[in-house]
Amino acid sequence: MGRFSISDLEQLSGIKAHTIRMWEQRYGILQPVRTATNIRTYCDEDLRRLLNVATLCARGQRISRIAQLAPEELSRAVISCCDDAHDYFQQVNSLLAAMLAMDERRLCCLLDTAIQELGFEEAIMRVAYPFLQRIGVMWQAGSVNPAQEHLVTNLLRQKMMAGIDALPPVQPQEARRWVLFLPEGEMHELALLFMSYVLRARKQHVLYLGQNLPTTELGPVCETYQPHAVCTVMTAMPERDRVQAFVEQVHHLCPGVMVYLYGPLAQQEGLRLPANTVRVRLMTDFLALASSLCTCPEAASVA
User: Fold this and answer.
1) Terminal CA-CA length for the chain
2) Is the residue at 245 inside a domain?
3) Percentage of the chain with pLDDT > 90?
4) Residues in Cβ contact with 154 at an 8 Å cutoff, skipping those fewer than 6 apart
5) Domain tally for the chain?
6) Smallest Cα–Cα separation from 231: which of 290, 284, 175?
7) I need a labelling partner for 147 at 20 to 30 A (CA). Which of 224, 240, 271, 290 fits?
8) Is residue 1 part of a domain?
9) Residues 97 and 155 grouped into a single domain
10) Peptide bond preceding 238: is omega within 30 degrees of 0, i.e. cis?
11) What is the pLDDT of the chain when averaged over all its residues?
């Protein structure tokens, strides 16, 4: 069970600490536990309730009325009001509350609605990515358990796979060819899957090799497939002191091929980039890159 300070709640919910204290004192919205030194601490249920209360307040409902709602009524009210496709912050709050409740049905419904109303790429960039960033903050604070993180990750992976499958096929001889892979031991796949979608939506051909690829396999792949570009994401692997050697090995195994590096480990200071190797700092940079390489006007308009 999570243990949050009031500053944690402020950061995760977007509600100022003094407002939280006022709601707590006047309306009994939250029920903190006091430490031996008289400091308030809050649990998962407190955070979930605050996220739901914040969502309804943002819709103009009175806090005095919200405070009277039973937990089931509060959840139903939040679900019924999350219909603004461009209210990204409140959509993220609703997703966080659903995750904390391990409510897969609601998570799926919220994501499907965002995709239907915004389009796949906008939903990922405007809703799913901020959602994952908030989960990252909670993970660092020790307030997200592995089951909650796995629920979200696997659900987003399903959505991305479905989005990719729904795209029309592209013939490799008629398109720019990409190899996408994760380094050996790397299992964080969501960014690479989204990159695959972005490229395919712009009529690029993608050979998707997925997680945990031994680097030596790139040589035979490049000889056979003859890609124009290789892309990898380095989140947790390789080890920080082996990143330079990994980048040089990829360059050696893929001569004459553009290599694109993304992820936290690709951004480390002092990394020397071989020829034809580019560091992509932001996902928006990758979207711009993919659109600039696209020769199909109708596909470029997807960006």
Assistant:
1) 41
2) yes
3) 42
4) none
5) 2
6) 290
7) 240
8) no
9) yes
10) yes
11) 85
Q: Are residues 63 and 196 in the same domain?
A: no
Kindly state the tokens that stand for 108. Answer: 């799926």
Between CA 19 and CA 23 the distance in angstroms is 6
Percent of the chain past pLDDT 70, that is, above it, reads 89
Write out the two tokens for 232.
Answer: 């990898």
Q: Is residue 69 part of a domain?
A: yes
Which three-class secondary structure string do you get for the chain? Answer: CCCECHHHHHHHHCCCHHHHHHHHHHHCCCCCEECCCCCEEECHHHHHHHHHHHHHHHCCCCHHHHCCCCHHHHHHHHHHHCCCCCCHHHHHHHHHHHHHCCCHHHHHHHHHHHHHHHCHHHHHHHHHHHHHHHHHHHHHCCCCCHHHHHHHHHHHHHHHHHHHHCCCCCCHHHCCEEEEEEECCCCCCHHHHHHHHHHHHCCCEEEEEEEEECHHHHHHHHHHHCCCEEEEECCCCCCHHHHHHHHHHHHHHCCCCEEEEECHHHHCCCCCCCCCEEECCCHHHHHHHHHHHCCCHHHHCCC
Residues 21 and 123 in one domain: yes
What amino acid is encoded at 73 in this protein? Answer: E
- CATH number assigned to the domain comprising residue 202: 3.40.50.280
Same-domain check for residues 221 and 108: no
Specify which of 97-101, 144-148, 226-230 reaches the highest per-range mean pLDDT.
226-230
